[in-house]
Amino acid sequence: MFPAEPADPVSESERDAPVLGSVTILVCATCRDETGSDAHPRAGSLLAQDARRAASNDAISVRTVECLGNCKRRLSAALLRDGCWSYVFGDLAPDSGADLVAGARLFSTSTDGLIPWRGRPDSLKRGLVARIPPLAFTKDVP
Question: Entry's CDD domains (predicted)?
Answer without folding.
Answer: TRX_Fd_family
